[in-house]
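Prompt: May I have another protein with tokenized structure?
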Amino acid sequence: MTSSLPTRSLAVAEALAAAGVPGGIRLLPDSARTAAEAAAALGCEVGAIANSLVFLCGGAPLLVMTSGAHRVDTVHLAGQLGTGPIERATAAQVREATGQAIGGVAPTGHPARLRTVVDTALQQYEVLWAAAGHPHTVVPMTYEELLRVTAGTPSVVTPG
């Protein structure tokens, strides 16, 4: 029933289909802006929520798909990637880079492909849940599908 999805989620559905990711987008009755809200709505562990966070690295957007169970350590991540400083993007910068609002940023469906890092902590979960372009939409996928749909680089995003 994709016709009932918000416009931003329709773009995500198209990108997922093009990447061969079979999980259907689900419309939630309440907002899932945070990992805790999403986990409660879905009845899963907070760690299985694949948070989509946008940072700036060298002036360019960097999408980090991280487990909802922890925070990204930007100094550690910059060391892992061999880059200069990584800073959190503003809400306006997130929308410009992704076409989506904070709380609903999907791993795909953006105006242009973003450099993406995928947290290796997510690989321990059989099913991951990611936002699907709107705070009320989510999509299930595996770690391998998340890597494929984002063309992401697996990385440790917070020290052990």
Notes: The two ends are 41 Å apart (CA to CA).
